[in-house]
Amino acid sequence: MTGSVAAAHQAVKAGTNKKGKYLTFTLEKEEYGISIFKVKEIIGIMPITTVPGTPDFIKGVINLRGKVISVVDLRLKFSMGSIPYSDRTCIIVVEIAAESETVLIGIIVDAVSEVLNIREEDTEDTPAFGASLDTGYILGMAKTRNSVKILLDIDRVLTADDRAGLENFHNLREELKTSKE
Questions:
Q1: Maximal CA-CA distance, the chain
Q2: How far apart are CA 71 and CA 61, in angstroms?
Q3: Are 58 and 169 in contact (CB under 8 A)?
Q4: Domain parsing of the chain, residue ranges
Q5: Cα torsion at 65, 68, 70, 75 (round to 10°)?
Q6: CA 13 from chain center: how many Å?
Q7: Can you give the pLDDT at residue 146?
Q8: Is 70 exceeded by the pLDDT of residue 96?
Q9: Which CATH architecture has domain 3-180?
Q10: Beta bridge partners of 68
Q11: Percent of the chain with pLDDT over 90
Q12: In Å, how far from its chain's centre is CA 137?
């Protein structure tokens, strides 16, 4: 991202209201939050069918009550490395904006923490890390008790190419489903 584009993006994020309810979860030892309005449900780890040719962070798909949903491992997406899943590992089903529609995806997290009501005065803009680091997916930072939670813009966690690939995959699933009926 060039300096001027990064500066423009920071200006847009600075004007974004960050207050509201957030579902918080952990990856590694860090706490993250996503708007509760994006969360559709939280489920335990279940069998995931791998899909050949997808990036490592796309673990595959699950069958959730007859609906096939793509699953992304956020640890791998954030270059944290893989760990064995535990009884606290879960999938948060979220609705993200794709190119032409909204799509349900599952995101694997180490553990879900709680729902927090974040006040505007408890938030700060994303710190500048330099032009070479893209932080467009970070909505801001929330100060809670003695910690800082990283607020994610879940629509931007996946790049445009990632979202387009998921949307194409979603469209292919729908075509296959329609052709079987």
A1: 55
A2: 5
A3: no
A4: 3-180
A5: 30
A6: 17
A7: 83
A8: yes
A9: Beta Barrel (2.40)
A10: 63
A11: 48
A12: 9
